[in-house]
User: Fold these one by one.
Assistant:
Number 1:
Amino acid sequence: MRYALRKVGLFALTLWAAVTLNFLLPRMMPGSPADAAIARLSQNGPVTDETRAAVEAQLGVPDGNILQQYLAYLDQVIHLDFGISYAFYPEPVSGLVATALPYTIVLVGTVTVIAFILGTLLGVLAAWRRGTWLDALPTVGGSFMNTFPYFWTSLLLLFFLGYVAHLFPTFGAYSATAVPGISWDFFVDILYHAALPAVTLLITSLGGWIIGMRNAMINTLGEDYVTFAEANGIGGRTVALRYAARNAILPNLTGFGLALGGVVGGSILVEQVFGYPGIGFLLFNAVIGQDYPLMQALFLMITVSVLVANLLVDILYGVLDPRTRR
Amino acid sequence: MSENTTRASSPSPVGHRPHPAVEALRGGLRAIWGNRKARIGMILLALFILVALLAPLLAPYAPKDNSFDRNLGASAQHWLGTTAAGEDVLSQLIHGARISVIVGFGAGSISTLIAVLIGLTWGYITGFAADVVNFVVNLFLVIPGLPLMIVIATYLQNGGISVIIAVIAITGWAWGARVLRSQTSTLRNRDFVQSAKFSGERAPRIIFREILPNMTSIIAGGFFGSATAAILAEAGLEFLGLGDSSIVSWGTMLYWAQNSNALLTGQWALLFAPGLCIALLATSLTLINFGVDGISNPRLREGSTGR
């Protein structure tokens, strides 16, 4: 219990530091949103002082000293009020984020869980049947797929299955003609549009889980207690799953927790290629449109979700591996 | 550890004996070379480095020479066709190797160095100091790499390749440090560390002379891992148009390909080649890792049954 409390305390501290960093980051960088907007305006001719004042008022240039700005920022964060988006003016940032979030969580979350389970099982199998094709195929294939740049896999699948073969839609989360709502047709349409991004994410993330589990498993298979269990005549499958895999999965669980935390921000490139309206695509649009309020809110949210996942993994790890509690 | 003792006892002419570190490196390379997968990786990597070094000699045209017809398919003059701006794709591909190799090795070594220094110290110490380090590393770990890189790159529009290397290194070391920490804290309670401690060894010596050699494979694996990640991250940033889009790299090639609708004009070579190169370069590093794993972890060695 003390272990968990200490972790929660650290979590609160880290949360504060992350929120503060998000405040400081844009202030450490050269230039400001208003300067950037004015620089773009000045390409069309001289900018008057009135125009400058209007731009600054519109973009909500912070006033007061840095402490007042910081307090105002904390107040905003607590109320989840991140202001008005520049790129999607006059939409509030929080509304845009709320619309995009479910797409990413369902798509990337599902794929992450599937990839972890499938990859871990294949890893156990590869280590257990070491030296056979059951080892060679997933290990070599997995490590090769693992090195594919996400966006390239996306581009190729989109090109061959979308543009050339016309098997899958090439853009968006649902057809332009579909009626959003709770209906079977809409559900199928959503799945159809999510198929290619999901396959891309699965292809590129599966290999890591296979290799990680295989190598951890090979280590535990060499431990004395495994040899002892085998010497006692315990069946091969029982030794593999109940003795070796149970211990080998620990390092992979850390990775899984962090991967779950990374779900929110982990698919920027894939979403950009497929025009899938999730958090990643929103961040891309914010970056392209130099939409600083939106960018800051998204960055904060992506950070906080990883932070929460990290806390849960730490606590879980303490339960599963008593050695770390020391 | 056992590697060192066996090598020290191998016969070699006294007086001409190379420095122990050189000998260890040579032994390590030989061990990696002995692994079939790693051998393929090393040949592949050497090929890419060679292409990067000799790019001006190998490329048929200058990478930015846009005097050709646009959107050409493959032909004898242009093996991979031309871009929408009328540049030779093959020449761009060959020159693009330079950026990826530089970014991979540059960012990979910097982040590995940080990971080793912080990870090992963190794993050895306990109590309040460990919590402070935990706090700092967690902070770096929770800030997701790609989004942070994107945000910084947006503020520093066209910062150049050194900015990209710095950003990738700073955002990339925390994971390695965490892995090294957990390994160190397991080793911390092993007998050889305890006996070193009781015989009065000082902490830095225990950490870097007793514990470190047991983690060669993890550290080397971490280096190749972060080099791979750096290559992919750089390509991703360039693909989003956040790097310096005037340089010729595999990432910018894909960026211009997507922006000039290569998907619609059907120039599959332009889409296929740069990504394949990124994947192959990254694969070569991963393959080498198979051999590296075998050096200090005999259980992972090829041919050993592991049981």
Note: Chain B has 14 helices and no strands.
Number 2:
Amino acid sequence: MKQVALRCLAAAAVLVTLVAPAAAQGTLRIGMTAADIPLTTGQTDQGGEGQRFMGYTVYDALINWDLSSADKASQLVPGLATDWRADEKDRRRWILTIRKGAMFHDGSEFTAEAAVWNFDKLLKTDSPQYDSRQSAQGRSRIPAVAGYRAIDKYTLEITTKEPDAFLPYQIAWIMMSSPANWEKVGKSWAAYAKTPSGTGPWRVDRWTPRERAELVPNKNYWDPKRIPKLDRLVLLPLPEATSRVAALRSGQVDWIEAPPPDAIQSLRSAGLQIVTNAYPHNWTWHLSRIEGSPWNDIRIRKAANLAVDRDGLKKLLGGMMIPGEGHVTRSSPWFGNPSFKVRYDPNEARKLLAEAGYSKAKPVTVKILISASGSGQMQPLPMNEFVQQNLAEVGIKVDFEVVEWNTLINIWRAGAKDPSSRGAHGMNYSYFIQDPFTGFVRHVESTLVAPRGTNWGWYQDKEMDALLATARTTFEPAAQTKALQAVHEKFVDDALFVYITHDVNPRAMSPRVRGFVQAQNWFQDFSPVFMAPK
Amino acid sequence: MLLYLIKRLLYVVPIALAVSAVCFSLVFLAPGDPLSAVLPADASTEMVEKLKADYGFDKPIPVQFARWVGRAVQGDLGTSIATGRPVAIEIGRAISNTFVLAFFACAIGFTLGLFFGTVAGYFQGTWIDKLVTAIAVAGVSVPHYWLGMVLVIVFSVVLNVLPAVGMGADGSSQWAWDWEHLRFVILPAITLSMIPTGIITRTVRALVADILAREFVAALRGKGLTDRGVFMHVVKNAGPTTLAVMGVQLGYLLGGSILVETVFSWPGTGFLLNTAIFQRDVPLLQGTILFLALFFVALNLIVDLLQTLIDPRIKRS
């Protein structure tokens, strides 16, 4: 009997070890791809990575992303606002209810006035707290916002220029800094950067520019489910990919972002975890639709989409991609049911090209701008060469012009008609496609042709404009999803881009790292992560 | 001597101006946009233009250069576009870290270079000379970033005895001269010392061999001077040239190595320059290069003066 009891006790102990994290939750050291610690004042720099590590950790937005699931695309959830709704009588007027009792790390309370103060920080150039650095990062994220005011301590009103149901997605970009802390440090953002204060689940304990930042749990976080399990989160800028891999393999860090594809196999062999998932990123050829572009013929666009051997490309990348079936991944709620199936079918591609008057012997020639490297660009040189060979097989001759990544960004802003585009018929560009505006609107809306917006290819289509307008003025979530599905179906059915791949956001980590759920999002939640005992 | 010193100091002005002008031109000739570091990719053209005006990049390049020079002569190197921090503070932090690395690389490189060079010079034509020459050629020829990666794979990844990156478990701000921190400097210092080892070895070998073949050495030996006495004469004769070579190497090492510091994520001037180049951070790039150029000029001057002190045949007048 005594032995049975002892066995039961031992079994229970093992179960507790397996089910619950150990009492000592440990320190997690992450090697980032960034060359510096992202801006700590609230609105971060360093793109999606900055927001991932210094935005959603230390700060909150009024509306946050749900980062708790790996199985489905992330949705918006209450953040510092518990609910939001557009006024039924005037759809330009939004009312947001502010969460009561959400406290900044400095002990002050987040209120509607604090939200207004934060919008002024980005938009009102003559306000004392206006910060050009944060404004450069945040202003372009909230193009719909026309005005804002605090109705009372816990009620915020935001007005938009036009009725715009996409506003919540824009608001999810804006991180809320503490007015009280800014006052306390002498109304200086430089001083604020040294002692940041947000409402997020982590607070900055200490940091050294260009070297490391150490975050510790905010035990008073307003969402008890997201109070971090770790004792400490250390962020290290390691921009050189081979250095990140070496740091992980030598045990100096526990987790690295974006391991190079050719290192994945060796990392797996060394017993390290490789975590991947679909996320809102695509790697496409953005097509020029200006007069004279061969891509104005839908048969050529469809032929290019059918000529790409995506499974072959996947092998080239060691499995680190999701074959493109559309502008968004199939797991996205906006995928819909396009009638044109993006697949590898070279015979069908040849048939379409023959109808258009081209063949392998008499190819259509296109010039594509590509970069040699760049954030989110994966492995642009071998990947583009692979696609080039695929297209040559069916009768599309591709000439590349390789430009530096930042130059490509500038060309993209300038538009296909600009001389800087050098008469190119397309460009290889990877896109952040997390919300309806970045995913769809900016690429195709008629009013956003470059340089006014980033519709690089000068695509203009009244039917598409109407579909976008419907989605933008559909405020009921399920109906809005349906409207966005219609938009995406047109994207695919009209083969507006050459859809090639989606990145899978690989991360490599020590087997001791537990509890991480890789959300289908550019941002991630580090709260459930813990370190297994050595 | 004083006149020489003043003349050399005055040379600094055109050198600094020329270095700044070349650097400024190169930054603007290179593709990319200095504002890309602070703007999201999808920032509108209107936003880009506004920020250009805020930073003064909308002005003609000569005007921008003149403004920068005007501020620099007052000691204001400006503010980094990417970080918003003063360039002087960024450089100050990085240069002190590079000094730590350079100190150890010099210690290794100069010691080995002098030793190998002298031995090879004394045993010219023997297998010892051939072996040392092979080591020296390898030191100069092997790409040091490649060597750095190999050392990391062997000592950090496979043997797991030395750290692969960084400047201490808690970063450079917590640097101390104890084993816990010194172990971080071993691999980058060995990597960085390879080139000076090779160059100094070859220089010293040639000098020693040349001096030993001179008639005055035979005369000294004929007069019955001991080997030690002869060695001292060899050292005195080889000293000035060796010192000049070591001075140049010291300058290179103190200037920081972009490749080695990037491979080892060592937060020095090389790492800083690499980041500034990729971010098109013009003020940071300008400030760092100007500082390093002035530093190099100053170091050369010191070496020249030291040469005069140890070799009275060299006149600086």
Note: The CA atoms of residues 70 and 518 of chain A lie 5 Å apart.
Number 3:
Amino acid sequence: MTAVPDRAKRPGPTIVTRLMENRHLGWAALAVGLVAPFVIATPYAMNIMTSAVIFVMLAVGLNIVVGYCGLLDLGFAAFFAVGAYTSGLLATRLSWPLLATVPAVIIATALAGVIIGGPTLRLRSDYLAIVTLGFGEIVRIIANNLEVTGGPSGIYGIPGLFGAEAADPVVFYYAALVIVAVAVLLAARLGRSRLGRAWRFVREDEDAAEAMGVHTYRIKMAAYIAGAIWGGLAGVLFAAQLSAISPASFTFLQSALVLMAVVLGGMGSTPGVVIGAVVISLLPEILRDLADYRFFVFGVLLIVMMIVRPQGLWPHRSRETARTAARSGES
Amino acid sequence: MSQLIWNGLFVGSFYALVALGYTMVYGIIKLLNFAHGDLYMLGAFTGFAMLGAMGGLVRSSSLVALLVVLVLTMVTTGLGGLVIERVAYRPLRGMPRLSLLITAVGASFALEYGTRIAAGPNPRVYPVRLDGAAVDVLGARVTMQQLVLMAVSAALMVALAVFIGRTQQGRAMRAIALDPKACLLMGINVDAIIARTFFIGSAMAGAAGVMAGGYYGKIDFLMGFIIGLKAFTAAVIGGIGNVPGTMLGALVLGLLESFGTHWVGGEWRDVFAFGFLILFLTVRPTGLLGERVTERV
Amino acid sequence: MKKIALGAVLGAATLAVSACGQGVLGSDKTDDSGPIALGMVVPLSGSSADIGPYMKNGAQMAIDEINAKGGVDGRKLQLRVEDGACDPKTEVAAANKLIAAKIAVSVGGYCSGSALPTLPLFDRNKIPMIIPAANSTELVEQKLKHVFLINGTGDQQAAAAVSWMGKDGAKKVAVLHDNTSYSKDIATRTATGLDQPGGPDKAALDAVTPGESDYSANIASVLKTKPDFVYWTGYYQEGGLILRQLRQAGYTGKFMVGDGSVDAKLIKIAGDKAAEGAYATMTQTPDTIEGAGGWVANYKKKFGAEPGPYSTQSYDAVRVAAEGITKAGGTDGDKVAKALEAIDGFPIFSGPLKFTPQHTLSNGGFVILVVKNGAFTLRDALK
């Protein structure tokens, strides 16, 4: 796309933008998250808030791949599934405590990242998209067909994060909140590191990056593996929260929803992606009372939100020109 | 063997009709139109409503009635595509490409669940059923109806290929795919051409919807989802953005599924099809007929 | 440091507005007067969205009937339905919402895979769960005190299927399923039954992808094995298509479907000609029980639609729940669960109800139906 007429006129720092740039906002947000259960702690509220927090982790993971590095991934649920199944299998079949499965999950998802990324990362944009979509489906179908993964019913009886006894939803919510907050912080740090700058370079112009001596294939692989690990760890939390996992949780729709969270919030922008994830995961629940109209309204709201804020709810701000900003979306 | 080939080709021709709209839209504005499969669904329901309205008239001459409905439905879904383009895609032109993905998914949800509100969650059954005696062709069972449907889709595809390749409009479309800004400067009404592309692509999907309704008989509000994914896959196999490639890709996908079912069983069919696709793309990264282009230089 | 869990803000803010005094420090009191709420998680969106209304209507019908007779212990019943979409995450959220709404008994559950994570939730909150539709054995393998199945298990249905195949003189049977837990469970158990020496043999066991329109490839590969009997264990939408396409492909043998396919729409989709003579493994329905025809008429009058799969089971689930509450003399979950275990001979569609120690039906009550003149009628009671 070449035509980018009038986005050069950038307004000066208004109160809102200055507030959005505020360094302490993240802490404020965490504080609100910590206080929330004192306001409302019905099982339902705790459940959807925990789900939202886990979804944030997924979105932040995908953001590394799509937002930082510009690789379009339509099968992110594959890593989510690998993480959830690895930890679920180890916890139920071999009775490991759930926390002990974390190293295994990291290894398994990193391996999955290498297997999926290896042959495909040389492909560009939409071909990469279909290949990742294919891998997502393959992982789901394998989980559905194999005996060891419990077939279509999946695995049940997965213990909680700290053993089966401490299953209080509030405790789990706090645990998830803290873990995810750390993960978000780490991802943001990673994005600003040397590696993160290389990712953005590859996103902006792969050929130029290659010419400047960036090993683009290796850099892309790093993004893929990082995203995979984040997704896999989100899977562990997911397995702990639901206590039972089945292939129905890892469909293409799930991948699409995570991608939507990233784009809706603002690709490459950590606060944006966090907000996007919360909106995408809470909106259908908030609209629940509309019954039959729920997903219709959800669809219409998605269109409206995007038209009002085409760059995302909270876009990434950097010293890019309008031109490069537009191209960065092309990936 | 010949039965497997015939089944694959027949299914593939449905995929092709849907995939064509996908590939045209992609070729011209580089948009993965996730709502495209739902236009197929919309076509099936529009046709259903029209046949219902025609009532007794239908019974007497079902094939003729179905053809009339086919044309009317193509116009209706074409207009539907226009509306979606105007409301959900045009305001975002020039914005990051992935933001269009969100509105596409939004439009898809709105179409699916809008239909669910209007027509209910239950599947509907077409009042007209194409059913006929089978003939044996080289060891494959082929019905007259299948041949008619194949002929109709082939005709539509040829017409489209001629339209894109030979007419001024088609040339304008190809030009926009290459460089929209230059087209603007050359006095081409880019908005109008893009709108027309959506119209044609959606009409094709609508046609496939009516044909599926008439042949298979059952329609439901989520029927577009799977075929949308299949169409996307087919378009990529053929080389997305390339019209003849897409047709070829759709037939290849149909055959892959047919043989995959036979060789590895229905359970593993999609693993086989996607696995083949992945291997194929690593060998030939731009699809069957896609051109080798470098992006963003 | 600004870039931390901003998400929680939005979530908390939205919820905080809608509720006060429900925090971790808030009080938790139950109300013993007023209506008794029964909860139900069913799919109202997603690929199984068509089944939800059938179940909801069936349950509503039982509730209205009970209320018309004065309710339970003088308290009216009330139905709360939430959409689970057959997605585990959504289903868990829905279950939690019902728990927050203080339902006394859960009478929902359709997709086994997504119902599984809701079981420990209901169990932990001492809410008895009477599952009308989901029937995988995994549901009861955890031996949860509060979980009951009132739909025949896959084992029972498979046994009924195999015994009918033998009785009908089948030689080579092909079994097709749709790769969901319900369908695959019945199919693999049927296949195991066929593999036993004696009786009909297994020709093929294959799966289709639900939601598609063209199954000719599956059919071609099944017909290669030359079966004279095909058993479909999935739902009516694909069942109708498969039956029709089987006939188009020149198959002339017998065809049988599982209970998820017993719906008038199956016959419509397949077409009268193709569907004629098709068998089904099914529990007794109002159509097949003498003198129960009024049930269907009432249902049609009330909802303006035909009953479908699991309408009767949902209707029964509510009645069983009411019976349990009556016997327990209140809505205390443990007492209700005990009362349910003690039920003996309560009449439901599949026959007199008595739970096994595993909380499944002691008698699945499966009978064989046949499509005759465009409607399912009783063929053999398998007694």
Note: The two ends of chain C are 72 Å apart (CA to CA).
Number 4:
Amino acid sequence: MNALKNPRLLGMLAVVIVLAAAPIFFAEQNYAMRVVTVGMCAAIAVYGLNIILGFTGQLSLAQGGFFGIGAYGVGLLTTDFDWSFWSAFIVTIIGTAAVGYLCGLIALRTKDEYFAIFTMAIGFIIFLVISRWESVTHAHSGVNNVKFPEGGGIIDFESPVAMFYLVFVILLICIYVTHAIRRSSVGRTLLTIRTSEDLADAIGVRVGFSKQLAFAASAVLGGIGGGLYATVVGFIGPDSASIDKTFEFLMFILVGGMGTVAGPLLGSMIVTFLFELFQDFQAYRFIVLGPIIVALVIFAPRGIIGYLGGIVDRRSRKQKIAEARRTADGASPEYDTAKSGTVTSGIDPEETK
Amino acid sequence: MTLLEIRDLGKRFGGLDAVKDVSLDVEEGRITAVIGPNGAGKSTLFNLIHGYYRPTSGSVTFKGDDITNSSPHHAVADGIARTFQTTHLFDDSTLLENVLAGRIVRSKSTIFDAVFHTPRHRRESRINKDKAMEALEFCEIDTHRHDLASNVPQEVQKRTAVAMALATEPELLLLDEPAGGIPEEETTDFGNLIRSLPKRGVSVLLVEHKMSMIMGLADTILVLDHGQKLALGTPAEIQSNPDVIRAYLGSTAEEKK
């Protein structure tokens, strides 16, 4: 019953239920279904970005590259090598984990803006390999007829609704894992690193190792998103690994809110919707989207969820502070009088009630 | 028993000896202080002990194990915690969350425990919360536990830094100017907090500028000047040591003699 009082959980539930119900409204419109499903694939990759950027505070610009590795891994293995989707998917996930871990070994020797530039270079190298290595990746002709997931005779994944729910379930798992990380000591470790690496070091956090794991985990989620994207769309070209993808993901997370549980999902859905809305304007859509993002960065730098979460946090903290004061009043009045000078100095006592 | 043994420790930055040939024994259950003028190498010494810098010579031994070249997170895991001269806290987090961060080093549960919500994870979360609360109570700031670190007075922030360090369950606590920036009238309270640490099984090594506080607090004092040992002894011995008086009052004191 406590859960019903938690506005954060309620909000998350509302978004998930709306999304889960989407096929009821769009089931007959294959195009709309596909747009939402592709948006969810991107959201999975954005949850990856959330781990390294939102939690750990390292701006990785290689996420589009890992998305591309995921897409091409599944794409090439199911077509040229004729593997089943599931085996290709699993091998691709392991592959992106390995590539992510190795890239992290070098990239994480750098810090801050150098890390951003370095990972951008990694993303660009991945894009170049995919767009130029014609004998393997077919370069600009792309990969056609990526296999649908095998349903084992029970589910037919050729139906857009079945595909929608497949991506939806994997997305839910990503959301739950994000939630679990956030409230565990693992999340506390990453947030500690984000705030201050020196302080993290001083309280015994294994900074390098934790960053390494966070980077590998973000790469894995990028790969999962990419792999699903390949099977949803059926055709992939080099632009699925391009640097534009990275900045798309970055926009999703900025709009939704970095380091939050619901932010990547909400951001991905809203921006995908806006992209579709301005589809007709093509190159001009950024004239409208640009100011929206500028306004967001100025007025809600922590994104939509970060902004709402801030309000919720302040309110619950006020309650807790007032409660702590009350119990302190009852339990040890002499302590309170001794300290009252410092206790009330910063906070207006009226406000806490 | 000697907890920490420093032998001929040295650190060169380019051509400058920040710390040179410093030896010091930190006894268990005692408060040991390091004093000296600005730039005497006090903070560098701390950074060397805690593994933030690699020494260029000498050795550091903790509980009989050589930790000369170990990294800070190993030092914390071994039982050496520290606070910084400028208070380092997580400003956007509450005091309780800050102190909980100190529990990370003692947490064994992995991401899988968190995802599957295993009994180990639940047990550990509970223990962490209890230990953090205990550290907050010990530092007498538990009524502030839901306040943001950036919203509380300087003295409470300093106490939070100590509580965070205590949450790592150290045997030795390195305090770098714990009373720096605290109004004079509150240093007595803070001194009492430091004095109560050895009773809790935490030995203390501290750097401090406030002489009045040090003299009433420390069992042993090491005086550093230009990175080298100037004197070592009890507060009474240090106060009457002519070398120390000269270093602190400058050469004019000598000329006047």
Note: The two ends of chain A are 24 Å apart (CA to CA).
